[in-house]
Amino acid sequence: MKSIAVPGFHERQRGSALLIALITAALAAVIATVMLERGQRSLARSEALLATERSWQYARGMSVLAGKLLEQAMAEGASSSALDGSWTAPFDVPGGMVQGRLIDQGALFNLNALAHPDGATANEAREAFRRLLEQLDLNPIIADELADWLDGAVMPRPGSAANDWYARQDPPYRTAGVLMANASELRWLRSVDEAAWHKLSPLVVALPEPELRINVNTARPEVLAAVIAELDVEQARRVVADGPYSDPVRFVEHPLVAPVIRPDERIRLAIRSRWYVAQARVVIDGVERDYFRLMNGSAAGYDGFRRFSQGVP
Question: How does strand 96-104 pair with strand 275-284?
């Protein structure tokens, strides 16, 4: 009878060693792959951080340039149109491009004017905002809701909303009781949906002061017609087109303005703007970033309300 060969101890040991070696090699390959991927991600993060920092520094440089140009223009009494010079053309930088511009805020309706400490002045601003809403076929109750939002009213104006309504939302929130930091806060109001905001956003701004002062040389026709109650939008468009005006008297003497403007409306008009937004558009390694800073052209050394951001001002 033939004997059956049974693997010996050493042969089994060699098989186990081979299996362990294969497993170890596989684990080493996995670990190496993971480490390589982590290294690549770390390198990508470092490159992204470096590009962001470079963009930030270029934006700061453009902000300084905008400030100097604005200061010079204000000292020389130049108009807003003079600020749209050759500096707004894009220019090359290592790895990309930089472009800057100044955006006139005196052409827009200041929402914070509804929070003026003088009640009569605040009411006049609220009525002007109501007229703007009616021009856009929006619910005029938004004006009351904005006034309640700014003063933190516990007892809302008739038809408006106050803290109890906002507190019932999901998530709950409260009226601000302070000036708006950004016009987009309008979206928190009960009656301002996406469609309403789409109509309002090109015409409004939230400046860090409760004053309503419109630059008649750059004003949006809808805003000018809202400030001058008896002027319709088409008339306002013609009045702006007939500019620029070197002094407020020339504007007030315009044939379409003189018969309808009231004394309380005159004080809201100016021929130059005080507030601008400096925009810096930076493209580094194919990635585009926008930075914005609010600037005051008539307050020397103004540094009380500035912001750098990416996105919409």
Answer: antiparallel
